[in-house]
Amino acid sequence: MQQKYSLKWGIMLGLGVFLMVVLAACGNAASNNQTNEKSGTDALNGQSQSVAMREYVDATGKKVSIPANPQRVVTTQYLDAMLALGVKPVGAASHVLEGDYLKGKIDGIVDIGNPTNVEKVLELQPDLIIATEDTSPEVKEQLEKIAPTVAVSFGDGDVFKQLRDVAAVLGKDKEAEHWIASFDKKAEEGRKKLAGKFKKDETITIYMTYGKDVLRVYGARNVGHVIYRSLELNPPEYIRQKLAKDPKYNFVYDSISMEKLPELSGDRIIMLVYDEAAKDGMLKEIEQSALWRNLPAVKNHKVYFIKADPWFTYSPLAIDHSLDEAIKMLSVDPT
Predict the structure, then answer these.
(1) Could you tell me the fold of the domain covering 52-171?
(2) What domain of life (predicted)?
């Protein structure tokens, strides 16, 4: 009888051990499957690494799987917005690295050229690339082989939308709202400071000269964003009507002839001199003309001359720097 019970318990014990081994093996297999779902392989060095990913629909309508917390980002356009969000890319295009207002902020960022040098991007081993919606299909295809590549629209909406769109890619939405709130507060303080400097209906026109033959009048983007939107100064009637028809403030500029100066010039004039060539070209021709000399703003010494950097650039840090300069400039009478 005792042997029968011993045999019975031995069989049960053996089955128990067998089940424990099987369950443990199944548990390990399930654990491995879960890890594999979260793991990816770095195509650049062949090393397996666990990276949290998320889906993002970019400006072209394409769904892209991107890192939830990217560490090595390359951008062909949005350096300025990234810096405003507290993210320093490892590489950026040549043209966005040129602004003097960025000095001290871009040390260590690699110039990837313009147009984009794909080989240089590959060397940087990015885990995310942020480009524009008009990146050529050939270049974008090459970039997509290196890392997830997201297109962000540059022209759709204002500079704040640009910042929010870049923030959405980087997971920095709160940082974007904080930056915008700080900028709006500075603009409000600027309006208070300038309140006694401008008459109620006083208007201000923004021109730009470029090279030997280009003259433009600006709307509410680039330099116009700061003057008309942030500081809420009055544009001339021609610009006011343009902006009234454009709720997105996308009106940038119109190229005009000198003969338009009397019609478009307000009580004050801001003249953006884009390059040195304009000083001996279009600007010189304008200043030597009777049309210019007879403008009320010229006669009353209310003309302000500014440079392209940072006024011409339409990006967060550029308009922030321009706002500081505008408040300082408009607080005193021009000479």
Answers:
(1) Rossmann fold (3.40.50)
(2) Bacteria
